[in-house]
Amino acid sequence: MALIYIEDNDPWIVEHDACEGLFREIMEQLSQRDREVRTSQAFASLSANIRFQLKQYTDQIAQLRKKVDEALKLRVITLDEAERRRRQVEQLQSNAFKIKQLYDARMNPTASDRPSLINSSGSAFADGGTTGWGQDDDEDDPPLNLNVSVSDLKTHNEAAIQEQDRGLDELYQVIVRQKNIAQTIHTEVDHQNELIDDLADHMERTDERLIDGTRRIRAIDRRDRTCGYWVIIIILFISIITIAVV
After folding, report:
1. pLDDT category, 66, cuts 50, 70, 90?
2. Is residue 4 a contact partner of residue 78, using CB atoms and an 8 Å limit?
3. Residue whose C-alpha is closest to residue 92's, from 130, 137, 62, 70
4. Which end of the chain is more exposed for a tag (fewer CB within 10 A), N or C?
5. What is the mean pLDDT of residues 213-217?
């Protein structure tokens, strides 16, 4: 396979850099949203904008992955370059998963907050009043509903667990993909090593043939020189005899 040199202005690289820039922009908005009150208009506006940009971010990742496959199919890039770009796409997918986790962190109560709600409700009912709810809540959180039932909490907890399972499934797919890429690279390296070994053997045999040919040429050259000397001696001998007879 012929090597293709990738220029700095390659369209795929430009789009990849733009996708990374969008990731940094989303992270900045998440950081800004964390400073807002969850019930405020600014929080809602930032959340809507983050959802829109996250959709745009995932679409760009899909386009990058598609273009890598098309470029490899058309032999515009080498197999090694395609694997390197796929690893970069996998990193972008991991960033998307990270964004979703950070986004859901403030939108839904975490599992660590639920025991405190249950304990607070238990203490409230134990005291026969409603003073146990929401006494230790963060001032950014909305007022808690005093009529929340155990079944509602259970349903909400199951939904959060399902969301976490989906996230773990996505992470598992990323890990499997990276494992397959590593195996492909290992196979390609083994193949290249075999080619290098064959090339070394061929060069060694060629060197041996060159040395043997040089040795033969030298032997022939020496025989040619000796033959010339004998011809000259014979001619001189004949000349001497001819002069003596005359």
Report:
1. very high
2. yes
3. 62
4. C
5. 82
